[in-house]
Design goal:
- The protein has 155 residues and is α+β, with helices and mostly antiparallel strands.
- 31% of the residues lie in helices and 37% in strands.
- The strands form two sheets. Strands 3, 4, 6, 8 and 9 form a five-stranded antiparallel beta sheet that branches.
- Helix 2 runs antiparallel to helix 3.
- The termini are far apart.
Length: 155
Amino acid sequence: MDESKDVPKDFIKLKSEKLSVDEVSELVISPYCGAVSLFIGTTRNNFEGKKVIHLEYEAYTSMAEAEIKKICRDVRQKWPSVKHIAVHHRLGVVPITEASVIIAVSSPHRAESLEAVMYCINTLKASVPIWKKEIYEDEYSWKENKECFWANSEK
């Protein structure tokens, strides 16, 4: 089989519409890969005893896309066998149980795709300019990622 016809691709999307796990996972399927690993981050209904109504995300879109591209490049350096990478993040209002972020990675074997997915979500939360606002019953709060490098540099 000619693997050169299935060149590695990165699929990056920031959008306000509902995310589809099927759509994202189908983007990374390859006949040369025996593993597709997924991370799906969803909106939960509580945080520290408060009832969460929904989340709202904002992004510096062009910079966020550039940072996600860097993450994809880093993944390919760390795990050269990774074939395709998809990172879709929702912006705007995200209701309870719906996906805020879906990351999918394909590789010939599971170890590489699982490690790459974990690296993607951890690095995304630490370096990509996407901000989350939690809306509670009586108030709201902009959430700071503990992993976020610019939040930690001021302390």
